[in-house]
Amino acid sequence: MGSSENSTSSVKLPDSLCVREITEVHTLLLDALAERDEVVLDVPEGAAVDLSFIQLVQSARLQAEASDKAISLSNGAGDRLRNVLERAGFLTNMRPEDAQFWLHEEFQP
């Protein structure tokens, strides 16, 4: 990954991160990853979230890693995002790197 400031891009996401808007979010993410080595996703507090957003981000994380790039969240998951993560089973037996990514917390078994 590059070390210059220009290698990082902050992406302000829309207030709705659901299946109806996921194409827009996908495009924002792809464009940012094409331009930068590091992408920081800014999820609005209280954003509507569904599983499609989590699936998109998980896929983007794998793609970024394979391309020697990185994706992160500007803040740990807010209440709504955390609720979807919990209902989808992502918080059960979470890997340390996933806890750091989604929750900004150290892994606690």
What are the SSEs and their pairings?
Layout: E1 8-12, E2 16-17, H1 22-35, E3 38-42, E4 48-49, H2 51-66, E5 70-73, H3 79-87, H4 96-103
Parallel strand pairs: 1-3, 2-4, 3-5
Helix pairs in contact: 1-2
Written account of the structure:
With 109 residues, the protein is of the alpha/beta class. It has helices at residues 22-35, 51-66, 79-87, 96-103; strands spanning 8-12, 16-17, 38-42, 48-49, 70-73. The chain has one domain (5-103): Transcription Regulator spoIIAA (2-Layer Sandwich), CATH 3.30.750.24. The strands form 2 sheets. The protein has a 3-stranded parallel β-sheet with strand order 1-3-5, covered by helices on one side.
Provide mean pLDDT, rounded. 91
User: In what range is the share of β-strand residues?
Assistant: 15-25%
* Secondary-structure element pattern, one letter each: EEHEEHEHH
CATH topology descriptor: Transcription Regulator spoIIAA
Output the CATH homologous superfamily: STAS domain
CATH class: Alpha Beta
Key features of this structure:
Transcription Regulator spoIIAA, 43% helix, alpha/beta, 109 residues, two-stranded parallel ribbon, globular, disordered N terminus, 3-stranded parallel sheet, 4 helices
Nutshell version of this structure?
The chain has a single domain (5-103), classed as 2-Layer Sandwich (Transcription Regulator spoIIAA).
